[in-house]
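ARCHIVE CARD
Drawer: 12
Card no.: 0347
Subject: one protein chain, sequence and derived structure
Cross-reference: see card 0346
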Amino acid sequence: MVGSAEELKALQPVVMKQLQTIFEKNRTGHAYIFDGEKGTGKKDIALFFIKLLLCLNPSKNVPCETCRNCKRVETGNHPNVKQIEPDGQNIKIDQIRDLISGMTKTSIEEGRKIYVLHHADKLNTSSANTLLKFLEEPDGEVTAILLTESYQSILPTIQSRCQHIKFANIPREILLKQLEEQGITHSMASTASMLTNNLETAVSLAHDEQFGLARKTVLKLVETVRKNVHEALLVVYEDWLPNFKEKEEVERALDLLLFAYRDIVAIKANPQSSCTYPDMMQSWKEIALNTTYDRLSNQMQAILQARQNLGRNMNRTLLMEQLMLDLQEGYTFV
């Protein structure tokens, strides 16, 4: 994952500014919740913040990375820093008791003590209540960093005692770059990055055969819808229905179909737009020239309606036949 202050700033500009300002103004709080989806850089930024708070020679609100403290934080050997991971499904009361006892021992070095709770939403009621007492009355200079992907699952009493630091989703251009660095084509990276903001999930989607097939089938369908309803229905019977049997697969395929029409709208407005399907740019430009915003809007509405009908368990074949007729509206029947 990314590590330098510059890379972290590109990933989470708002969060980094918040933390660097806290340090600069010497306003370090006793507890923070870092809240954001998987892959948004919470662990890396927590490490950066810990180094900054303990660094012996910080410069311009950035840790030096070379002093004894920075090196010990990096290798996980600083005695004043404790990390807690869930034990099985939960963070248990004994883990919190051990943590508190470790944090209150006099044998720890002078200076600030910092502990990080990974997946803080996994605190059970008893461990959360034990932590609460320590959050309210920490012993000396203590800072807690709670990491979570599920802020709403953390007890409101704990939320109210922590400063909430909200992590934004990764900027799409950074995710695209990370995917391409892993050898994924620009076209596939562009599509995968529209469906998830998480690097690991996007990589596994890009390598997934079923996803590749879904992408191909959707693009074939958009091409044939332009020609005539009979050809489009043929693609539905021969490719779509046999390939997408599970409800989740149909949902994803409808999302991919919606992204295709969104691409066409974007290109109609600005031919230089970045797309979900950059490999279809020529085709999208041609469609955009021969259609109106109204028609495109109706087509997108029809796809959204099909997605709702899927949720109501409408017969899949009927659903797709209806959708093909709706997408054809405004095209001439041959």
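Annotation on reverse: Residues 208-328 form a domain with the Zinc Finger, Delta Prime; domain 3 fold (CATH 1.20.272.10). The longest strand covers residues 142-148.
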